[in-house]
Design goal:
- The chain is 35% helix and 18% strand.
- It has 167 residues and is of the alpha+beta class.
């Protein structure tokens, strides 16, 4: 970090900046948005002590660079009817991992699909409203071509579930 940035003076991001670069000011903006994504550029600017235009331009640039992917409400899944959460570890025939992952990711109940290391190739998290829909999903996975083995665990109690990274 430059001495200028350490003093709180922030330089504009330019087209030459690395696409994945997020500086201290961006992090302050992201932290504020993580707490409340409904805050206006003006409110964020007042909170962190920079101009509204600076905040607006930084948010626009981070959106264009794919740092900010969107704005979504945080939901209480049980209050929206999604009372079953499952974790599934999956072994897949090596050359078909991407195909299987894409098919699984296209399922509306699946909220996360990960490539993982270890004895399994894929991990997924899914949420269901009924035991019937959960059962149908598990049976459909077992019929999926190129899936060799699965281990399914049902979540009994959620201790923490927050998609936001604490900045």
């Amino acid at each position: 970090m430059s001495s200028k940035q350490e003093r709180g003076d922030y330089e504009k991001l330019t087209e030459d900046d690395d696409l994945n670069f997020v500086d201290a000011l961006d992090m302050k903006i992201l932290s504020t948005l993580s707490e409340d994504a409904r805050k206006s550029s003006r409110e964020i600017a007042e909170t962190i002590g920079v101009s509204t235009g600076t905040v607006y331009n930084r948010i626009k640039k981070m959106t264009e660079k794919g740092v900010i992917l969107g704005y979504i409400p945080l939901l209480d899944n049980t209050k929206t009817g999604y009372v079953f959460t499952i974790l599934i570890l999956i072994q897949v025939d090596g050359e078909y991992i991407t195909d299987v992952e894409e098919r699984l990711a296209a399922t509306k109940e699946v909220i996360a699909v990960y490539d993982i290391t270890g004895d399994f190739d894929v991990a997924l998290i899914a949420k269901f409203k009924t035991q019937t829909s959960l059962n149908a999903f598990i049976k459909s996975i077992l019929k999926t071509l190129h899936i060799r083995r699965t281990v399914t665990s049902m979540v009994l109690n959620v201790i923490k579930e927050d998609p936001r990274i604490q900045i």
